[in-house]
Design brief:
The complex is a heterodimer of chains A (273) and B (254). With 273 residues, chain A is α/β, with parallel strands linked by helices. In chain A, the strands form 2 sheets. In chain A, strands 6-7-8-3-9-10 form a 6-stranded mixed sheet, sandwiched between helices. Chain A has a 4-stranded antiparallel sheet with strand order 2-1-4-5, covered by helices on one side. Chain B has 254 residues and is an all-alpha fold. In chain B, 72% of the residues lie in helices and 0% in strands. Chain B is built from 12 helices and no strands. In chain B, helix 4 packs parallel to helix 7 and helix 5 crosses helix 7. Chain B is flat. The chains are: A alpha/beta (273), B mainly alpha (254).
Chain lengths: 273, 254
C-alpha cells in the first residue's frame, strides 16, 4: 500500500511541483494519474519509489517511510518504468538488459533464468532475446524497458506515459497485459494523457493540476465532469462526447457514460421502449 | 547533484545591468579576473579579488545561482585544500582554493548572464568563422539539457536497483556503464537529428550571412571596462611593487 500525507516538493530551480498531496493506494488497485503537463504527475510517482523525498509530509510504502530506506531497497517492491526507454537501455542484448535489475537485486542464477523466460514470454519479446535493444523500433524498445522492470515482479508497477508512440494494437495489448498483471494481485499505476486508455483499463482516475489532486474517483465520475476536464486540459473520452451530444436532444439521457458497451445498452434500451 | 551544479552555469533571463552588457565586455571581465587570479598566490589579494568578483554577481541578482555553483564544486574545493596542505602548506592551500573560487565566480557570472546566441554573435563580430561560433553556442545551449538527461538516466537505472556507491573502485567504475552508454547513444541520436533539422532549414546555403542584430558597445560597457582595467592595473602595480605593500603577503601564523 502506498500512502502519502500532505506531500510538498520543490525542485532546486525553485518550481514547486507538489503542493500538499494526500492519497492512499491500496494493494491490487489499478490507478491512472492524469493531468496537464507540469501538473506534478511524474514528480509524484518518483516519490513512490524513493527517487525523490518529500520536502514536507511523508510517503509510506507498506508502512515504511521512504526517507528511511534506499531506492534499491524499494525497487524490489515498486517498479518504475520511465517514459523514454532510451534513458535506460544500454546492454548488448535484450536478455542482458532484462537481467540487469535482477542481478542488482541479488536474485539467484536459477531465479534470474526463470524470470527472464517468464517476462520475455509475457511481453512477447522472445524473438528479440539475442537482439540489441538499441536496434529495435520505438514501440519494441518501450516494451523491453517495461520487461526490464517487470522481471522483478514488483508488487507495485508504475508506468510513466506508456502509450506514447504505440499504435492502437500495441496499446490494446499493453492495456490487457497490465490488466492481467493487476488481476494477479498487484497494484498498477500509470501516468498518462491518454483518456481512452485510462478509462478503458483503469478503475480509479486521479487528476492533478498545479501540484494538487483535483479529482479522484472512478472513470465515469471523473472523466465525465466538464469542470474537472477543463481545469486539467484533458479532453473527454469519445463515448462521453457522444452521450453529451445525445443528451442535448434526448430527455434524461445519462451524461456519465465512458464505456462503449454502456452507451450501446442505453441506446438499445431506449429504442426498445 | 549534477543538475544543481550545471544549473549554476545556465543562462537565466533577467533584466539587470550585467545582463545588458555586451558579451565582449563580459569576456574581458573573465580574462581580467583570470589574469589576476593567476598573478597571485597569496591569500589577501586573492581574497580581495574574490570579493570584487561578487560585484557582478550581485549586480546580476544571481547570488542564489552562484551559491549553487559553489555548492556543486565543494568536493573539488575540499580536495584542493587537502592536497595542497600536504604538498605545500595551509596558506598556499587556502590561496589555491580562493583562486579556483575566483575562476568559478567569473565564469558563472559570464554564463549566467550571457545568452548563447549573444555569445555567438560576439564571436562572429570578433571575426570567428560562423560555423565555429555556431557550434560553440550550440554546445553551451546543450550543457543543461545533457545534465538533465544524465539525471533522468541516473533515476531510471536506480529504479532498476543500481547502487552507484556499491563495491570497490573497479565496481564503482563499472557502475557508470549503465549511465554513460545511454547518455552517449542519446547524444549521437540528438546530434544526427539536429543536423537533419539544420539542413532542412538550409543551413550553410549561403556563404555570406547577414545578421538581424549587431552588437554595439554602449556607455555602460565603457564604464565597466574602465572599472575592470583600473582594477587590473592596480593589481599589476601591487604585484610589481610588492615591498611597498607587504601586508598583501600576510599569512596565517603556523
Amino acid at each position: 500500500m502506498i500512502e502519502t500525507v500532505d506531500v510538498w516538493f520543490t525542485y532546486p530551480d525553485g518550481t514547486t511541483a507538489l503542493r500538499g498531496v494526500s492519497l492512499r493506494i491500496k494493494d491490487g488497485e489499478s490507478v491512472a494519474i492524469m493531468g496537464e503537463n507540469g501538473a506534478g504527475k511524474t514528480t509524484l510517482v518518483k516519490h513512490f519509489n524513493g527517487l525523490l523525498k518529500p520536502e514536507k509530509g511523508t510517503v509510506l510504502v507498506d508502512g515504511i517511510d521512504t526517507r528511511d530506506t534506499s531506492v534499491a531497497n524499494l525497487a524490489k517492491k515498486v517498479g518504475l518504468v520511465f517514459q523514454n526507454p532510451d534513458h535506460q537501455l544500454f546492454s548488448s542484448t535484450v536478455e542482458e538488459e532484462v537481467m540487469f535489475a535482477l542481478k542488482n537485486l541479488g536474485f539467484s542464477r536459477e531465479e534470474i533464468r526463470d524470470r527472464v523466460n517468464w517476462v520475455l514470454k509475457f511481453l512477447d519479446l522472445e524473438k528479440y532475446r539475442e537482439r540489441s535493444p538499441l536496434s529495435l523500433s520505438g514501440g519494441e524498445r518501450k516494451r523491453v524497458a517495461l520487461a526490464s522492470v517487470l522481471c522483478v515482479k514488483p508488487k507495485i508497477l508504475i508506468l510513466d506515459e506508456p502509450t506514447i508512440g504505440q499504435d492502437a494494437k500495441q496499446k490494446r495489448k499493453l492495456g490487457n497485459l497490465l490488466k492481467k498483471y493487476q488481476k494477479e494481485g498487484n497494484t498498477v499505476i500509470v501516468v498518462t494523457h491518454d483518456v481512452e486508455f485510462a478509462s478503458k483499463y483503469f478503475k480509479r482516475i486521479i487528476v492533478m493540476a498545479g501540484g494538487k489532486i483535483i479529482a479522484d474517483g472512478p472513470p465515469n465520475k471523473v472523466l465525465t465532469s466538464l469542470t474537472i476536464l477543463e481545469e486539467s486540459s484533458l479532453s473527454p473520452p469519445q463515448v462521453t462526447v457522444l452521450s453529451y451530444e445525445i443528451a442535448k436532444k434526448v430527455n434524461a439521457f445519462p451524461r456519465d457514460i465512458v464505456f462503449f458497451d454502456e452507451l450501446l445498452q442505453e441506446i438499445i434500451a431506449r429504442l426498445r421502449r | 547533484m549534477s543538475y544543481t551544479m550545471f544549473s549554476a552555469f545556465e543562462f537565466k533571463r533577467k533584466d539587470t545591468y550585467i545582463h545588458r552588457l555586451d558579451p565582449r565586455t563580459k569576456m574581458f571581465m573573465v580574462i581580467v579576473f583570470m589574469v589576476i587570479a593567476l598573478l597571485f598566490n597569496n591569500i589577501i589579494p586573492l581574497l580581495i579579488t574574490f570579493i570584487v568578483t561578487l560585484i557582478p554577481i550581485s549586480l546580476a541578482k544571481s547570488v542564489k545561482e552562484w551559491l549553487n555553483s559553489l555548492k556543486g564544486t565543494t568536493i573539488l574545493l575540499v580536495f584542493i585544500l587537502v592536497i595542497n596542505s600536504f604538498v605545500r602548506d595551509l596558506n598556499f592551500a587556502i590561496a589555491m582554493v580562493l583562486r579556483l573560487m575566483v575562476l568559478i565566480t567569473a565564469f558563472s557570472a559570464f554564463f549566467l548572464t550571457t545568452h548563447p546566441d549573444d555569445l555567438a554573435q560576439a564571436l562572429i563580430q570578433m571575426k570567428v568563422p560562423f560555423d565555429f561560433a555556431f557550434a560553440l553556442s550550440m554546445a553551451t545551449r546543450y550543457v543543461p539539457t545533457l545534465a538533465r538527461e544524465a539525471q533522468t538516466i541516473m533515476d531510471a537505472q536506480m529504479s532498476r536497483g543500481l547502487e552507484l556507491q556499491k563495491g570497490g573502485l573497479t565496481q564503482k567504475i563499472k557502475n557508470l556503464i549503465p549511465l554513460i552508454i545511454p547518455l552517449i547513444v542519446n547524444s549521437v541520436r540528438r546530434a544526427l537529428s539536429i543536423a537533419e533539422s539544420l539542413e532542412s532549414r538550409a543551413f550553410g546555403a549561403i556563404k555570406k550571412r547577414t545578421y538581424l542584430y549587431q552588437l554595439k558597445l554602449k556607455k555602460s560597457d565603457a564604464l565597466f571596462i574602465i572599472f575592470l582595467t583600473s582594477y587590473l592595473l592596480l593589481m599589476i602595480y601591487i604585484k610589481i611593487h610588492f615591498p611597498f605593500t607587504i601586508w598583501m603577503e600576510w599569512k596565517f601564523p603556523l
